[in-house]
Amino acid sequence: MTDMTKLAVLAEELKIGEYSRHIFLCIGDNCCSAQQGRAAWTKLKTVLKDRKLSLSSSPDACFRTKVDCLRVCQGGPILVVYPEGYWYASMTEDRIERFVDEQIVQGRPIDEWIFARNQLPKGSAENPPKT
Ligand code: FES
After folding, report:
1. 3 belongs to a structural domain
2. Is the CB of 76 under 6 A from ligand 1?
3. Mean pLDDT of 56-85
4. Is the minimum distance from the CB of 110 to ligand 1 under 6 angstroms?
5. Does some domain include residue 5?
6. What's the structural domain count of the chain?
7. With bands split at pLDDT 50, 70 and 90, how would you rate the model's confidence at 126?
8. Residue 34 sits in a domain of what CATH number?
9. Is residue 124 in some structural domain?
10. How would residue 54 be classed by pLDDT, with cut points 50, 70 and 90?
11. Does the C-beta of 37 come closer than 6 Å to ligand 1?
């Protein structure tokens, strides 16, 4: 089996191509403590699994990725969700359940936790690039 074939098999197992959203959570030590980051990541995995949004093929299925830095480096844990492109601050464990229920399940952004927006893709009729 070639490397590309192995990757294609892995991508199929991970259901890459079926997800509606991708959530990145920064647990890097420049924006939160290691304990805060680990707790938030564990809670995110648990809540997504509980809501059947992890490794499922529901319309709201989410791919999740923990990262070491999103270049903000303060007010973390920082979380960004695509395609909406909402950047959330202070996403500690206690905020994760509300985030999943309101932002992901209901599609209602939590404005008071969002500090930046960068909806993708740029260039669509709903989201034209700035000139
Ligand atoms: S360490 Fe979290 S954004 Fe840089």
Report:
1. no
2. yes
3. 92
4. no
5. no
6. 1
7. low
8. 3.40.30.10
9. no
10. confident
11. no
Q: What is the pLDDT of residues 75-122, one digit of tens each?
A: 999 999 999 999 999 999 999 999 999 999 999 999 999 999 999 888
State mean pLDDT over 15-35.
Answer: 93
Domain range for residue 97?
18-117
Is residue 83 a part of any domain in this protein?
yes
pLDDT, mean over the chain:
92
Contact 70, 26 (CB under 8 A): yes
Calculate the CA 30 to chain-centre distance.
19
The neighbouring-strand residues paired with 114 are 88
DSSP per-residue string spanning the chain: --HHHHHHHHHHHTTTTS-SEEEEEE--TTTS-HHHHHHHHHHHHHHHHHTT-BS--STT-EEEEEES--S--SSSS-EEEETTTEEES---HHHHHHHIIIIIIS----GGGEEEE--SSTTBTTBPPP-
Decide whether any atom of ligand 1 lies within 6 Å of the 24 Cβ. no
Ligand 1, residues 65, 72, 79, 92: which to mutate, most atoms within 8 A of Cβ? 72
